[in-house]
Design brief:
Structural class of chain B: alpha+beta
Order of helices and strands of chain B: HEEEHHHHHEEHHHHHHHHEEEHHHH
Number of domains of chain A: 1
CATH architecture of chain B: Orthogonal Bundle
Largest interface: A-B, 40 and 40 residues
Chains: A alpha/beta, B alpha+beta, C mainly alpha
Radius of gyration of chain A: 19 Å
Distance between the termini of chain B: 52 Å
Shape of chain B: globular
Shape of chain A: elongated
Largest sheet of chain B: 3 strands, antiparallel
Radius of gyration of chain B: 22 Å
CATH class of chain B: Mainly Alpha
Structural class of chain A: alpha/beta
Oligomer: heterotrimer
Number of domains of chain B: 1
Number of strands of chain A: 7
């Protein structure tokens, strides 16, 4: 893993090509992470993949997260892996919530990492994050006519309460 | 007649979601030209269970049984991915005995998973007796699980901090019996399949995808190793007792379905070796960490110590809190890299639990494996891909 | 043995008469009605649909229960049918998602009468632990279920036990619940009822009708 100084070095190098791309760096529990501006996501991912000395060629996982009370609300996480040095780095693209009627948007990285295809569709399915340039951005796990983005924190868990006579009698 | 021969038409065939050869409720929309697959689209989500959402509603120790039910053939791996992630977040070191016990059960589970795979895949290829032989050994593994944990499947044996109980008396003897038998049994499976002309001609040279393409598609596990890439998280990363174990990574050469079969069968033998070494080196000592903030106190203390009773009450009612943070922890499951992402917001419930399931990612390679081959080879490739639909859909 | 053979020969020759003949017939012929015989034949030659949903499929009819240790062939149901049109039993082995529910209903509709359904495991019986947006809370919401097998997942023995219960039901002699066995009527729990826990009017009506059926059978 790149440690905290190593991360700052990476940040400095990214800043040369993409000024303002890296918003923050973090190092916790032995995991390095870069928080980036979603406008530069392809640039940063491409740099981490191709720049000499980096070589994070393997995208282990792409997933979204919802940090509801915090702002910006959404993040798309890219867990990159360098298989030669056995190092992981997480790139977090922070996305603001554009409000009720529109969806957060970010560029798709399917061109860089073909493995992201299903995982971007999953993030779209559950969080309503639109990946621009994705070849087939449709719902993947839920029915096609489903309404809502179920894994957002403000979406109810759903299901049915279990009712018992006793509770109904005394409290219902 | 010449006119007839030239007329070709692409026919779209729907396979599934209820189809005996799709290993669960996978739906495939296949474009066929004659018998040749021209294009293919897997449609998934038919057992989408919303487990990740349910986990957000449960305290950390209640999440464990949920994540087990994702990939229902390799449940110990799901538990380890989640417990390992939480342990790293709260920086809790697990005792050596727990590490070894976890290693033993993980590897037994790997054998179990490969046995289910071998039985069902060989059944798809017409070797029906393999199902009987493989499930015979599977029952023995499940007996071991039941002996130690009380359940055959979904054992909830791993806890944050270690394992829930020590192995019972007599378990070791039974496990040693199994270890002694297993390589012989694997030899029997190979004797049944390796010289079976039908099996060989259906697997050899079919479903080849190059190593580079597999890496691009994010494929891990036996599929990648069959293509000649010796990538195994057990060797690459340091977790549990694997650094102390001596085992080999079976690697294929061509990357066809036959290599995939050979790699998995060789892995069963290697796993048996790991179990044996871990059992030989099993250290004495506690099987669960001693941190009362995260680990339930032993039953015997409850009647003597007020403090233990308070801890017990707190842990059972509210659960423990995990400081804000996020972590991605990956282990090698029977199907590849199984990653668990946990986002904690400081409360007693995780804010997000996400599993990077290898079946889900590996399924993307299915199109590359099948396009241009016969539809019968597609069924073979699907079996060798070994997707568990519960893991794909979660 | 010898004397029985001799008597059978006598009977075939027409030598037996009167009381002797009547006794012979009483001893050797089982009288039953056609329905019972049909139920007996049906219950011992069930063709289950090879249909697996999730965890329970590994433990249930598609896999573990047909293998050597449990061997459902003992109950005459080892011949799994891949097509719903040839099957007469569907076993819901696993959780039913909202995406899968219409397909299960369609499979059930495609099966020919008479047909039965076993709901295996907690998930398909009640939604189980997955009380969330994606899982149908009990398969009974969209199709009739004959036998519920509890467990998560149930052991193969439990599936076989549920299977024998279904056989009794097919034979027209269903096992009664524990309330009927122990005479515990009146202890039912009503989810939605009156202020003191008594059943609502329509629930009570449905219950009495069902009880009437059981008692008259």
């Amino acid at each position: 893993m790149p440690d905290a100084p190593g991360l700052e070095l990476i940040r400095g190098e990214i800043e040369q090509d993409h000024p303002g791309a890296v918003l923050d760096t973090g190092f916790e529990h032995g995991c390095a992470s870069l928080a980036i501006d979603p406008a530069h996501v392809l640039g940063v991912l491409g740099w981490l993949r191709d720049a000499p000395g980096q070589g994070y060629r393997f995208l282990s996982s792409l997933h979204a997260a919802d940090y509801l009370p915090a702002e910006p609300r959404f993040a798309v996480h890219y867990e990159l892996l360098n298989r030669d040095r056995v190092e992981r780095i997480r790139v977090k693209a922070l996305l603001a919530d554009p409000g009720e009627d529109s969806l957060p948007e970010i560029d798709s990285c399917v061109e860089l990492f073909p493995t992201a295809e299903f995982q971007e569709r999953e993030a779209y399915d559950f969080f309503g994050i639109v990946f621009n340039g994705h070849p087939d951005l449709t719902r993947i796990l839920l029915p096609e006519d489903y309404v809502g983005w179920p894994q957002r924190r403000d979406f109810p868990v759903g299901g049915e309460p279990v009712t018992f006579t006793y509770n109904e009698r005394n409290y219902g | 007649m010449a006119e007839l021969a030239e007329r070709t038409e692409v026919m779209t065939v729907n396979i599934g979601p209820h189809h005996p050869a799709t290993h669960g409720v996978l739906r495939l929309v296949v474009d066929l030209e004659g018998e040749v697959v021209k294009d293919l689209r897997p449609i998934i989500g038919y057992v989408h269970t919303g487990i990740e959402k349910s986990c957000e509603d449960k305290s950390y120790w209640k999440v464990i049984p949920f994540v087990e039910r994702m990939d229902y053939v390799s449940y110990f791996f799901q538990m380890e991915a989640f417990c390992g992630a939480v342990e790293r977040m709260i920086e809790l070191e697990i005792p050596p005995r727990a590490k070894y016990l976890r290693t033993i059960f993980l590897e037994l589970n790997r054998i179990h998973s490969h046995l289910v795979w071998l039985g069902t895949t060989a059944l798809d290829l017409g070797a029906i007796s393999m199902l009987w032989y493989c499930f015979r050994e599977r029952e023995r593994i499940l007996d071991l699980f039941e002996m130690a944990t009380g359940q055959r499947m979904h054992t909830r044996y791993f806890q944050v901090g270690g394992v829930i109980e020590d192995i019972p008396l007599g378990f070791e003897a039974k496990l040693r019996e199994f270890i002694a038998d297993m390589p012989v049994r694997v030899g029997q499976y190979q004797a049944l399949l390796d010289r079976n002309e039908v099996f060989l001609s259906r697997t050899k040279g079919t479903g080849i995808v190059s190593r580079e393409r597999l890496l691009e598609l994010g494929v891990t596990g036996p599929l990648l190793r069959a293509a000649g890439e010796p990538w195994d998280l057990r060797k690459a990363f340091d977790y549990l007792a694997y650094p102390e174990m001596d085992f080999k990574i079976p690697v294929g050469t061509v990357g066809d379905n036959y290599d995939r079969y050979r790699v998995r069968v060789a892995e069963m033998v290697e796993s048996t070796r790991i179990v044996e070494q871990a059992l030989d080196a099993l250290p004495e000592g506690p099987f669960i960490a001693d941190d009362r903030k995260y680990v339930l106190p032993p039953r015997s203390e409850l009647s003597t110590s007020m403090e233990s009773l308070i801890h017990h009450f707190k842990l059972v009612t509210e659960g423990y809190r995990v400081g804000p943070g996020e972590l991605y922890y990956a282990i090698e499951s029977p199907r590849g890299e199984l990653g668990c992402f946990v986002l904690a917001d400081g409360s007693a419930k995780p804010a997000r639990v996400h599993f990077r399931d290898p079946s889900f990612v590996n399924l993307q390679a299915f199109r590359d494996m099948s396009v241009g081959s016969y539809i019968a080879d597609m069924i073979c490739s699907l079996g060798m891909l070994d997707p568990i639909l519960g893991g794909v859909d979660r | 043995m010898r004397s029985r053979q001799l008597r059978a020969r006598d009977m075939l020759r027409g030598d037996l008469e009167g009381e002797e003949l009547e006794r012979y017939v009483e001893e050797r012929v089982v009288m039953t009605n056609f329905d019972k015989m049909l139920g007996w034949a049906r219950s011992n030659s069930i063709f289950p649909l090879t249909f697996g949903l999730a965890c329970c499929a590994i433990e249930g009819i598609p896999m573990a229960a047909v293998t050597a240790r449990y061997d459902i062939a003992r109950f005459g149901a080892e011949a799994g049918r891949a097509s719903p049109r040839q099957a007469d039993l569907i076993i819901l082995s696993g959780r039913v998602s909202i995406k899968m529910a219409p397909i299960i209903r369609r499979l059930y509709d495609q099966m020919l009468e008479p047909k039965w359904a076993i709901s295996m495991g907690a998930c398909s019986s009640s939604g189980g632990m997955f009380s969330n947006y994606a899982v149908v809370q009990g398969a009974e919401k969209f199709m009739p279920i004959d036998v519920h097998v509890p467990g998560c997942p149930p052991r193969p023995e439990a599936v076989l036990y549920g299977f024998t219960k279904l056989q009794r039901k097919i034979q027209g002699n269903p096992d009664q619940g524990w309330r009927a066995r122990y005479g515990a009527h009146g202890t039912e729990e009503w989810a939605r009822g009156g202020p003191r826990g008594e059943p609502s009017a329509e629930a009570a009506k449905a219950y009495l009708a069902a009880r009437e059926l059981i008692v008259s059978a």
